[in-house]
Each structure stands twice: as C-alpha cells, then as structure tokens.
Amino acid sequence: MRTGMFSQVLLPVAVVVLLAFSAACSHEISRTEKDKQNWNGGTTHEETTVYQNADGTTSTSHEKRSTNP
Q: What is the CATH number of the domain that holds 45?
C-alpha cells in the first residue's frame, strides 16, 4: 500500500516542486571583480554580478569589502 501511495501522490508532488524550483532560479549573466589599494595600506574588493531572472528581467548585486592594516 505504501508503494502505491508514493507513486500516486508523493512522486507527482515532488516533480512539481522540482520543476517550480528550476523555473524560479536565476542564472548569472556577467560578473566583474575589482581590487584597489587604499591610501592607508588596506585593500578594497568590489564585486558586481548581473543575474537574469526566470521572467526575463535582470537583477544586479554589488558587494564591497574593505580591509585595513
């Protein structure tokens, strides 16, 4: 009985969830990284990443990290 329930209910639900997840994922279009030396001897690292969403729109992520001596 458990095998029948798995194949009739749980398997189709799992497939639908996986398809929804894969359709909702975005993928990376471009990425730039830049390192710069600060006047005080530290460094600044900048990353900019552009993603294309599942609906065709784009999103941009920008990160900036600084280290000081």
A: 2.20.25
- Domain extent, residue 46, equals 2-67
Reduce the DSSP state of residue 27 to 3 states and report it. strand
- pLDDT tens digit string along 13-62? 666 555 555 556 778 899 999 999 999 899 999 999 999 988 889 999 99
Q: What is the rounded distance in angstroms from the CA atom of residue 32 to the CA atom of residue 14?
A: 37
Question: How many domains does the structure of the chain reveal?
Answer: 1
CA nearest neighbour of 55 among 19, 14, 27: 27
pTM greater than the 0.85 cutoff:
no
